[in-house]
Amino acid sequence: MRLIQARLLDTVRGGAIGVAEIIPGVSGGTVALLVGIYETLISSAAVIVRAFFSVFQPSSRPENWLALRQLPWWRLLVIAAGMLVAIVAAAAFIEPLIERFPELTRAFFAGLIVASLAVPIRMVGRPFGFSRLTVVLTVGAAVFLVLGLAPLNQVDPQPWVVVASAALAVCALVLPGVSGSFLLLSLGLYQPTLAAVNDRDFGYLGLFIAGAIAGLASFVVVLQWLLRRARALTLTVMTGLLLGSLRALWPWQTDERVLLAPATEQLLPALLWAGLGVAIVVGLMALQRLPASASQPTV
Description:
Blueprint: H1 2-22, H2 28-34, H3 38-53, H4 61-69, H5 73-100, H6 102-116, H7 118-124, H8 130-146, H9 159-169, H10 171-174, H11 180-186, H12 190-199, H13 202-229, H14 231-245, H15 264-288
Helix pairs in contact: 1-2, 1-5, 3-4, 3-13, 5-6, 5-12, 6-15, 7-14, 8-14, 9-11, 9-13, 13-14
């Protein structure tokens, strides 16, 4: 019974990450942090990447293949299945919701991110002194400025553009505070990618998956190294990324990302939806304390 409960929880965790990957401004890495599987995913991905490249390094092959066999494969497959189902479902339902109620949905997502700031801060495990606060504000300001850039528009993107954009966007899966969907939106690939999911355009999706795998293989080992060697600083930078990402989720803005003053009649509903977002994150933090279906792999 406990194993079934754990599998169901992991399916929900994977589904939450999948939904986040569809929503511009919300990071799948952030949700992975919230539901307590971030380091499991990072360490597992690093093992897979090293095992793949050990094909070209025979001396390290036995050690890496042993680590590969020791991964919690059932747990990873359940999480991946939850993500896949959620991505397909969210692509069909969330986009119309964003188009119909843009201010309220952005307010809700902003509430999620505001409460999420507590996650990397808590993981640092030390008081935030002046130096860490400076890093947070500097990174946050840089992200704020970047997210203010007007989005591109690509109706029929070239294959290399799809591959390169996917490689960049997949960083959001392993880097909390960075939204893969928002990066695609900035690059003009959000609508084409969403349409490809809904239309089952497997040619486009194949290119996208290839780019995502290449980007993941290039980035995940570096990030894990940073978490090992400079954990506190890396998590501090993640906090800044989360803070700056709120720029994309200000409820009142134009399609060119020009910030507007709050609409009086929408202020109270927006605050209520933001509060709901905060409450959901608090619930996810409680979920994080529940037992996992398998111990995290040692890498």
